[in-house]
């Protein structure tokens, strides 16, 4: 069971990372039609996609809320802790994707 948790945590990290990088990169292709600066668009999209990347990585918020509810009502702190870790891994992946786009857009 423990290996399954860490596999899910790494998967959540990678999904959130992929949503931010992929969404910002593919979304910036719209600048070919609108004559806007592509790197600014990438950076803007990456910032806007972070929350959606977390939701996509977690598979929707209802399962997380349900797990919190069962953890609180049944007094299982380990369930709450695991869900918080999954949220942190998803946030880490989204933030890491944003930092990568930031480095690409700023040229550093």
Architecture overview:
The chain is mainly α and 108 residues long. The protein is 87% helix and 0% strand. α1 packs parallel to α5 (77-106), α3 packs antiparallel against α5 (77-106) and α4 (61-73) runs antiparallel to α5 (77-106). The protein contains five helices and no strands. InterPro entries: Spore_YtrH (IPR025689). It comes from Proteinivorax tanatarense.
Tell me the layout of helices and strands:
Layout: H1 2-27, H2 31-34, H3 38-58, H4 61-73, H5 77-106
Helix pairs in contact: 1-3, 1-5, 3-5, 4-5
Ends: how far apart? 42 Å
Count of the separate structural domains: 1
Poorly predicted parts = none
Helix proportion range: over 70%
Shape: elongated
Class from helix and strand fractions: mainly alpha
**What's the mean pLDDT score?**
87
How much of the polypeptide forms β-strand, as a percent range?
A: under 5%
> Main β-sheet: number of strands, strand sense, barrel status?
none
InterPro entries: Spore_YtrH
Organism: Proteinivorax tanatarense
Pfam families: Spore_YtrH
Keywords: Membrane, Transmembrane, Transmembrane helix
Summarize this entry quickly.
With 108 residues, the chain is mostly helical.
List keywords for this structure.
YtrH family sporulation protein; Spore_YtrH; 108 residues; transmembrane; mainly alpha; membrane; single chain; transmembrane helix; 0% strand
